[in-house]
Amino acid sequence: MLKVALTGGIGAGKSTVAKQLSELGARVIDADALSREVVAPDTEGLAAVVSRFGPEVLTPEGALDRAKLASIVFNSPPARAELEAIVHPRVRARAREITDSLPEDAIVVQDIPLLAETGQAPGFHLNIDVEAPRELRLERLAARGLDRADALRRIDAQASDADRREVCDVVLYNDHDVHELERRVALLWDERIKPFAENLRHGHAERRPEKLQFVESDPAWFRRFEHLAARLRRVMGPSAVRIDHVGSTAVAGLPAKDVVDIQVTVVSLHVVDAFEEALGDAGFYGTVTFDSPKPEFPDIAQWEKRLYGYADPGNIAHLHFRSIDTPGQRFALLFRDWLRADPQARADYAQAKGVLAARSDSVTDYAEAKEPWFDSEGWPRANAWAAEHGWHAPLC
Ligand SMILES: CC(C)(COP(=O)(O)OP(=O)(O)OC[C@H]1O[C@@H](n2cnc3c(N)ncnc32)[C@H](O)[C@@H]1O)[C@@H](O)C(=O)NCCC(=O)NCCS
Ligand SMILES: Nc1ncnc2c1ncn2[C@@H]1O[C@H](COP(=O)(O)OP(=O)(O)OP(=O)(O)O)[C@@H](O)[C@H]1O
Predict the structure, then answer these.
(1) What are the pLDDT digits (tens) for 295-350?
(2) Per the database entry, which stretches of residues form a coiled coil (predicted)?
(3) DSSP string of 235-246?
(4) Ligand 1 residue neighbourhood (C-beta within 6 Å)
(5) ipTM score of the complex?
(6) Using 50, 70 and 90 to split pLDDT, how confident is the model at 210?
């Protein structure tokens, strides 16, 4: 089951996107609707609200006077926090009940206005942020009958666009007309959401971009790493002793294959096997270890590791599970830190990759392109750097 979260500031267009996704086949769960359901008349949620805020927040008919309660909570952060403490756990419980009742092959989209504020992003396979300029949002809210002062209070009570972007994998800009939004939603559905759901259904992880090519350094790689690390931490907890961004995408300014490399240090590879099912539920699958030779270490036996990928076609990642303090585990960190610290190493590496990208995209060519990394005795030059900087390199 693919679990997608949809968020965005008030008036950005979440409900409009959710409706389009529903028409494309997604099963939508609307947190706003659930937040009304759990405080409906005669619910224990409403009783809890009345117990905290008093009967003056009820209408004569005994329902919640939402406008009255809004005037209290959007003028007092502590009061809002107390209301959220009543409503949010009940909304999440209902969302879990509904999700659990859906077929395993469903694509579930949860419309969660406060995704960033409530730290729920790592619990979803894909997080989408719907964004629109503040003034456009205010115009839309005004057209919907919300007065500007109230809309501004709510906007100020929410996370910023930057906060939402930080936790989301995709940003859907909704700053054109509805037809353009529909086009963008359909593209996202066809290009990413559906293939992602297919991969999950078949237990498949994307191994590499179609064409092996080196692209300019991209800041999105660091955010992609953070998102995957947060999902891994949620699955493995302290069993993932450390989770590091390694490889070329971890070195700012370096061209790299559009594949985020993550090293997950474990006490033993048996730990990985114990988490195999939970990792699969989160979209991480063991993939065959590349059939290509390990060009970096022609004379050194392949160090044991488990290689996993992630099922999201828009976030291709290689997860290298290695046991703590083994040569492979230490070298991945040393190589990254050497490239980060040594401008000449970066220049050599970029030049070699440029040559490779120009010449071919076969992995075997990679071996020659990595020549500059070996000293006369055939040892990776990172060792000399490590010795010079007091790094205990694993290969000495
Ligand atoms: C205060 C209440 C009664 C006002 O009801 P009203 O019908 O006016 O607004 P509604 O619930 O439809 O929310 C409309 C929009 O307001 C914004 N909003 C609602 N609650 C909050 C909040 N706690 N913090 C920031 N923004 C909020 C969201 O963008 C939401 O989409 C209601 O918003 C509420 O119960 N809020 C607390 C529960 C909550 O956090 N809900 C958000 C989804 S779980
Ligand atoms: N691209 C668009 N062009 C014109 N109107 C739009 C567009 N997108 C959304 N709207 C309108 O703007 C208003 C707000 O959109 P919507 O309800 O989807 O936002 P929302 O993020 O769900 O808001 P809330 O946080 O209040 O639930 C709605 O009336 C919607 O029809």
Answers:
(1) 555 444 446 788 999 999 999 999 999 988 887 888 889 889 988 998 888 888 77
(2) none
(3) HHGGGS-EEEEE
(4) 10, 31-32, 35, 66, 69-70, 73, 80, 83-84, 87, 91, 113-114, 154, 157-158
(5) 0.95
(6) low
